[in-house]
Amino acid sequence: MNLASFPLAARGALATTALLVLGAAGLQAQPVNAGNSGTLVVPRDRVLNESGHYVLNRNLMLGANDVAAGLTISADDVTLDLNGFSVIGPGQMMGVGILVDGAKGVTIRNGKVGDFHFNIQIQNSMSVTVEGLQIRGQGILPPAPPPETGVMIIQSTNVVVRGNSIVNTGLGIFVRGGKSRANRIEGNTVSSNTGGLLGICYNPAPDDPMGPRGNLVADNLVSGFNIGIQMKDVAMNNVVLGNTIAYNMGGIGLDFRNDTIVEANNVLIELP
Length: 272
Hints:
Helices cover about 0% and strands about 50% of the residues.
């Protein structure tokens, strides 16, 4: 697929606006503000490795050969505004849509991400906000776990996932690892049409037997999954408050195997 015309706009620490254009060597920033004599280059693999405010101004459609990650954020203090546009994968449970890897002070907002195995993945990061996104899956029943996932958080702290719509994924929001602490999952609508296994799930990480702790899950609508919200036995001391859970017939609304605090006002409905 030809991505040569896919641009981004970036505003860095000097509040300079730049146009990023995908070229043969990478994404080349061409300064618009004459006060900035430098250039900013983002490699062709779409890695945002310098602080700044990036604005997507065209849909990004990725093929099977493009999706180790659609966009990767590895720098601190990055805002990625999708500006109402979409980052779309090839489907068939392939790749990561937007990856935040080892960064802090990151915000992702205002757009659509879909048709990846993991649509948003945050790992080994701190102080990340994901808000105002529309995330969609294909409703594929996986031959083995993990299924299509809306948002994956691994060994990360102070992550806020707020005000997003996640639809038709096998797993809505997945939080993993004992270093995943002080995270807030709030005000999201998480629904599945087909193949919905888990709405929100807290588990150990592959390299860590401990589970997330000290997190808040509040004011979410979770609908159409076999299990609405699940906490494994090692995911301790989390608070679940004021969620509405409509789970599939024969399923489980809340599945907690530990001392997670389940406050009042969680509403459970079994779907016909």
